[in-house]
Amino acid sequence: MDTNDISILAIESSCDETSASIIINGKVLNNIVATQSVHEKYGGVVPELASRAHQENIIPVVEQALRTSGIRKDQLSAVAFTRGPGLMGALLVGVSFAKAFAYARKIPLIEVNHMQAHVLAHFIEDPKPNFPFICLTVSGGHTQLVLVKSPLQMEVIGQTRDDAVGEAFDKTAKLLGLPYPGGPLIDRYAKAGNPKAFDFPITRMPDLDYSFSGIKTAVLYFLRDQLKENPNFISENSADLCASIQYSLIEMLLIKLKAALKHYRIKEVAIAGGVSANSGLRKTLTELAEQNGWNLYIPKFEYCTDNAAMIAMAAHFKYLQSDFTSLEVTPLAKMKL
Predict the structure, then answer these.
(1) Nearest to 52 by CA among 34, 75, 77, 78
(2) Domain map (residue ranges) of the chain
(3) pTM, rounded to two decimals
(4) Mean pLDDT of 288-313
(5) CATH for 128-298, among 3.40.710.10, 3.40.50.1240, 3.30.420.40, 3.40.50.300?
């Protein structure tokens, strides 16, 4: 390793996955992730349990990232971490570890916005988007349309006014009696169903904003009425229900995406965040891209969910700009892009 190489240790701990990654000169060497299964029996992430699990996982995860990269601690140029948005207790573990690590090694500290990192996950591997591009960022906590002008210059041009689309997937899945996390299960069962079997509302908001709370209410009342007539309605129609719900959610996402691309006259399209792993969304987007001549970019699955590789990539761009933070930095549960 050359003394001029830029090597960064990156840490992600915004929710329920502890992750560490090493990047050298913009090339990600690894992406170590420790998942937390403790939340499954509660039907959602329990913040206190998440922060405790991060405390248990962070040292082994960082040690594995260093060991598998072949990089020694004294060779690191900086340490990066997710400052927010996320769960405060979970973020605090990552921030505290990064601060202590940077102080002990006397190296710069780099704070990263979790949502900015999701967008920059597209630069981990080829092909990479050309600037400017529009990124649809979809996860359990966020739904945003982002105009990306450069690696560190982004503008949110549309976002949800209530639930995130990932939250809508999980909440409607819970109404169907599916275990947490239900979003991937809706995607799986939808493959065998008819997306036009049941007509759920397509909410239309002004401008480029979204709203996903309405479909949850619509599904709730629809199921209540159907179950009165047939107690086995859900089990007898599970595939069609999943397909119909997924169809409505994807339609809402793409109506605004198409409007944004038309307004800004852009053909470079990217998708990021955990929900970008949804096969129905990927398939529909791929078809639209072929029809409209868009250049579509979708990261590998491992870079769609929460991971430190995307934090590392964001940190690399910030390092090039000498965009460092002080040891007085604190986590932010809510952090704007």
Answers:
(1) 34
(2) 7-120+304-320, 128-298
(3) 0.94
(4) 95
(5) 3.30.420.40
